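I'll show a record.
***
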Amino acid sequence: MELPECYVCTESDPRPQRSACQCTDRYIHDACLVKMLETTRHAQCPVCAVPYANVGSRVAIVGVAPCGRGGMVIGAAMAATILLGCAINTWNAYMRFSLTGQEDFVICFAAILMTILGVTCLAFVGRECLMVGPRDLAWSIMVRKRKVFVFPSETLDSSFC
């Protein structure tokens, strides 16, 4: 009698288990099932479209992607904080010290420029938070990977022993 083979890798060793869906003649290794399901959105059989009874999954955060939309917003918020802090400090220096005409112009111009850029960055952050929402911006930064696990199930029929 021929041993059943895994429908993913077409190997019979180690012996695959019966597929935990409605297909009656399909067998699969647990490792092949995990590998196949980690790349899909749903834990269901590609043939009969029934969810596998012996599969669970969860989404794990495996990293951070700073180049996405949320990363840009965080960068703009940091830039706004730095620019506005420097602008406040520059305005304080402008008010405290008596300077010559040219120094006065340069300090005032720098303070105005930093204020404008800081407020522009702050407006960008506010706009993105209103348009997308803070929660979705935070989710856009996170790199997620689906972790699939197979529950132990009954062994193959005794007719294959």
Remarks:
- The longest helix spans residues 101-131.
